[in-house]
């Protein structure tokens, strides 16, 4: 069982909603309750249930202020371009000991600290939070204590694994675990198209590929072997897999992934600069 203090989520969209899902799990107790906001009443209604107060900005202009009053942890889940204005709005209503956590890419702790007076922390979760398998990177601001980090870590551990890194590394982390699910989905897409090209129906191809990826990752998680060693165990000398791996390696995957993550990192720096 996890016991957490009162929490506000400003912008309970896909990521904020995923974290909310972890907070309302039977194994988690949130003393003081959870308050969340969304732009529309339709969205607010979908997360309004026992233990969760949900406010809509379209019907209550002070929804964000109502949500953060009394909250120990304030999670800001709005888009990056909206973070600073949102912090300016809620700053007067924050409790003195409130910890403000942003999940927006490119918004630095320095930017946040220029607006709010207390502790700020950056978080970079990923979409597997929706199924409780997130990897979340955390970076503290200049005014955040070890206790603040421990509390925020406990919040994100309700939806998966947490890695604490210096803020100088948070953008690089976002190119791996943050963007990483998209890389995996792209591989599944292309492998599925290849299976269809071999004559399997879309349904069969999807099943073959998705279950193969899932099974391989579960084997990796359960094994003491490295990915390289597990690959070797599948690859019989002079066999079919060896021939396929040779073709894949011709694409210079090491360089390809290095260039892809470098491009993502460059974009993260552009977002921070703007």
From TrEMBL:
The record's GO molecular-function terms, alphabetically, read:
pyrroline-5-carboxylate reductase activity
The entry's localization annotation reads:
Cytoplasm
Domain Pyrroline-5-carboxylate reductase dimerisation intervals: 167-271
Record-annotated Pyrroline-5-carboxylate reductase catalytic N-terminal domain positions: 7-106
Q: In which pathway does it act?
A: Amino-acid biosynthesis; L-proline biosynthesis; L-proline from L-glutamate 5-semialdehyde: step 1/1
User: Could you tell me what reaction this enzyme catalyses?
Assistant: L-proline + NADP(+) = (S)-1-pyrroline-5-carboxylate + NADPH + 2 H(+); L-proline + NAD(+) = (S)-1-pyrroline-5-carboxylate + NADH + 2 H(+)
Q: Which InterPro entries match?
A: 6-PGluconate_DH-like_C_sf (IPR008927), NAD(P)-bd_dom_sf (IPR036291), P5C_Rdtase_cat_N (IPR028939), P5CR-like_CS (IPR053790), P5CR_dimer (IPR029036), Pyrroline-COOH_reductase (IPR000304)
UniProt keyword terms in alphabetical order: Amino-acid biosynthesis, Cytoplasm, NADP, Oxidoreductase, Proline biosynthesis
EC code: 1.5.1.2
User: Which Pfam families does the protein's record reference?
Assistant: F420_oxidored (PF03807), P5CR_dimer (PF14748)
Q: Quote the HAMAP family the UniProt record gives.
A: P5C_reductase
Q: What does this protein do?
A: Catalyzes the reduction of 1-pyrroline-5-carboxylate (PCA) to L-proline.
Q: Which family does it belong to?
A: Belongs to the pyrroline-5-carboxylate reductase family.
Name of the protein described by the UniProt record: Pyrroline-5-carboxylate reductase
Organism source for this protein? Answer: Antiquaquibacter oligotrophicus
Gene symbol here is proC
């Amino acid at each position: 069982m996890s016991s957490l203090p009162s929490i506000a989520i400003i912008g309970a969209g896909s990521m904020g909603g995923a974290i909310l899902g972890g907070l309302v799990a039977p194994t988690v107790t949130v003393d003081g309750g959870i308050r969340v906001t969304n732009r529309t009443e339709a969205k607010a209604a979908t997360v309004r249930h026992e233990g969760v107060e949900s406010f809509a900005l379209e019907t209550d202009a002070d929804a964000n202020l109502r949500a953060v009053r009394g909250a120990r942890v304030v999670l800001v889940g709005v888009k990056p371009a909206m973070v600073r204005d949102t912090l300016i709005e809620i700053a007067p209503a924050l409790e003195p000991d409130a910890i403000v956590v942003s999940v927006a890419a490119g918004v630095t702790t320095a930017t946040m600290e220029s607006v709010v007076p207390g502790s700020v922390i950056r978080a970079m979760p990923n979409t597997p939070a929706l199924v409780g398998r997130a990897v979340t990177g955390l970076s503290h601001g200049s005014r955040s204590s070890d206790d603040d980090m421990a509390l925020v870590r406990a919040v994100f551990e309700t939806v998966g694994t947490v890695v604490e890194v210096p803020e100088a590394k948070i953008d690089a982390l976002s190119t791996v675990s943050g963007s990483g699910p998209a890389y995996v989905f792209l591989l599944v897409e292309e492998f599925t198209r290849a299976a269809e090209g071999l004559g399997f129906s879309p349904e069969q191809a999807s099943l073959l590929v998705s279950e193969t990826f899932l099974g391989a990752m579960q084997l990796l998680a359960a094994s003491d072997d490295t990915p390289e060693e597990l690959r070797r165990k599948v690859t019989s000398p002079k066999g079919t897999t060896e021939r396929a791996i040779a073709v894949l390696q011709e694409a210079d995957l090491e360089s390809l992934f290095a260039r892809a993550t470098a491009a993502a990192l460059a974009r993260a720096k552009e977002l921070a600069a703007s």
